[in-house]
Design a protein that fits this description.
Helix 2 (36-52) packs antiparallel against helix 3. It contains 3 helices and 2 strands; from the N terminus they run αβααβ. It has a domain at 38-93. It is mostly helical and 93 residues long. Strands 1-2 form a two-stranded antiparallel sheet. The longest helix is centred in the C-terminal third of the chain and has 28 residues, at 54-81. The chain is elongated, with a radius of gyration of 17 Å. The chain has helices at residues 18-24, 36-52, 54-81; strands spanning 29-34, 88-92.
Length: 93
């Protein structure tokens, strides 16, 4: 499922970066950490673990609940791989 393409209408999204929004709101950024790779790796591990325990999770969440959750995680991972989702951490004063 990680091969799927996610199409985003750029008109629907704010064109300002999170950093720019913080600055426009009057915050002074003191540090910024790029965490996208770590987030993608963590999500990949979570997917593998949930798939390894599929039977238990289907029993817990039901078939529809399991499929919805694992599908959402796969779509998020695809979006990370396509550069549509980033994770950053800012410190600001």
């Amino acid at each position: 499922m990680a091969d799927s393409k996610i199409v985003a209408d750029s008109d629907l999204f704010n064109t300002l970066s999170y950093e720019e929004m913080l600055q426009e709101a009057g915050w002074q950024i003191t540090s910024r950490a790029e965490l996208t790779a770590e987030y993608g790796a963590s999500l990949g591990r979570l997917i593998r673990l949930e798939e390894a325990h599929e039977a238990e999770l289907r029993e817990l969440r039901g078939d529809a609940g399991y499929l919805e959750k694992i599908g959402r995680r796969h779509r998020s991972l695809a979006a990370i791989e396509q550069g549509l989702i980033r994770r950053e951490m800012f410190s600001a004063v």
